[in-house]
Amino acid sequence: VNAAMTTGSLRLAPSRSASQRTCSIGLRLPVIARRLHRRCEGCGASVAAVSLDIRAAERVDDELVAAVAALLPQLSSSPPPTADELQAIVDAPDSVLFVARSEGRIVGCLTLAMYRIPTGYKAWIEDVVVDGAARGQGVGEWLSRAALDEAARRGAKHVSLTSRVSRESANRLYQRIGFVSYDTNVYRYTL
């Protein structure tokens, strides 16, 4: 999205830097850099600018492992992945771990998982989590948009996700950016 748009009390300005990077198997992946300007709810004045950088993780280091370990408990009771498990996600050709940085600090992540089945090429957004201190700044939206762009680029015809009913803000976000509720049952079998 290159045009400026207003979302609630947040103004998303055009990208000051947008580029692509090449992954280990030669795919071109987008890099999204945004400058987010908060607006005062009372007078509408710009009160702060926040730098937001969304990239597909290319390598796993101590910073990424620690950030995911800090973020994941805000989403799930599952134990955080080890460095080797994160590396497997980063290295897999059909998954992309998007990482959001604000002012140089990792504040969110999202995994895009893709696979081919007889009915087409499918994509799922999984494990979207934004640090509590960074919520409401557009991080989840831009992580989601990066995943949608990548899924479209790779030829997926749909992108699916699940979100707990209790995650009211996340559900509003997904609906606002174009996701629609799909009439199906989701089942889980625990092994």
Task: Name the features.
9-stranded mixed sheet; globular; alpha+beta
Descriptive account of the structure:
- With 191 residues, this protein is an alpha+beta fold.
- 23% of the residues lie in helices and 37% in strands.
- The protein contains 4 helices and 9 strands.
- It has helices at residues 62-71, 83-91, 139-153, 168-176; strands at residues 5-7, 10-12, 17-22, 28-39, 46-56, 95-102, 105-117, 120-130, 158-160.
- Strands 1, 2, 3, 4, 5, 6, 7, 8 and 9 form a 9-stranded mixed β-sheet that branches.
- Strand 4 (28-39) and strand 5 (46-56) form a beta hairpin.
- The longest helix is centred in the C-terminal third of the chain and has 15 residues, at 139-153.
- The relative contact order is 0.13.
- Mean pLDDT is 82; it is low at 1-19 and 21-28.
